[in-house]
Structure prediction request, 293 residues.
Amino acid sequence: MSVSNLTLNNGVTMPALGLGVFQTPPEETSQAVEAALRVGYRHIDTAAAYGNEREVGAAIARSGLARSDIFIETKIWISDYGYEQTLHGFDKSAAKLGIEQIDLLILHQALPSAFDKTLDAYRALETLLADGKVRAIGVSNFMPEHIEQLLAAAKVVPTVNQIEVHPYFQQRKLQELNKQHDILTQAWSPIGGITFYRGGNKSTLEDPVIVEIARLHGKSAAQVMLAWHLQEGRSVIPKSVKPARIAENFDVFDFTLSAEQIAQIDALDTGMRGGPEPEAITLEAYGRAIPEA
Ligand SMILES: NC(=O)c1ccc[n+]([C@@H]2O[C@H](COP(=O)([O-])OP(=O)(O)OC[C@H]3O[C@@H](n4cnc5c(N)ncnc54)[C@H](OP(=O)(O)O)[C@@H]3O)[C@@H](O)[C@H]2O)c1
Prediction:
């Protein structure tokens, strides 16, 4: 397959596959981003809450690539929600990244018990978009009711909803709602990291169905999962700190899964969420200050 770019609902083009850097320690971030840029990644997904925006920016600055060749996505943490706070959240992220304009800025989580604050944060994203400080805006971990509440109040439809999607947790109804509104589903934990890095007992990487499909294509289980997402039209942002795996996760454009293989992976959904329950996200439980630049 050759699809490597997706067009967002506002016409902005985004590489379908990017490098994620959640849990990548700051001291390992620059080398991971450099390794990714060397093998052809042109999209990096970070977040204010990951504490490594500065190191992402440093690697991009050192790469020698034109700024316009790299798509940079980051997220506003819940502690910076509110209209003025979120505008300042942009300033902090842009300064740490060392850039004037962010390609895609998204709200990291809904705050269901303080949805007004979430809406104020989104209004700030709309202002940043109108001012040309960001090229696209979006959300993450928004469940159907959060999307509906947002759309009832917002002027700009989010371009993406970044949510947990891997073979064991596919959120089909939410994906369908995203599609109805022309919101791109971007899969976090696309190779199912959340099924194993917290000590879970059933890893998508060892799933017999996926392993067998991988064997048939002479590819790895991770590559098969990434191809599955891409063929179903999702954006993916696999994370690794290891150069060999970073290269492996990008080497997914030279094979195509059959409709039957896609259906086999679709059938692996367990309906069990790996990440935190979006309704349980509160400032009290998850709030923490994002440092100044
Ligand atoms: N919006 C949100 O709330 C949210 C939540 C979670 C994640 N995310 C984003 O999504 C990105 C990816 O999600 P994720 O980090 O949760 O999970 P993931 O990308 O599905 O999996 C990452 C895990 O898989 C390992 N790995 C990577 N490539 C591999 C390969 N080819 N073979 C075997 N193991 C491999 C990594 O270890 P090594 O590093 O040791 O290779 C790491 O433990 C994050 O980095 C972040 O950008 C967003």
Remarks:
- Residues 20-22, 45, 108, 140-141, 162, 188-194, 197, 205, 220, 222, 237-242, 245, 248-249, 275 surround NAP (CB under 6 Å).
- The two ends are 41 Å apart (CA to CA).
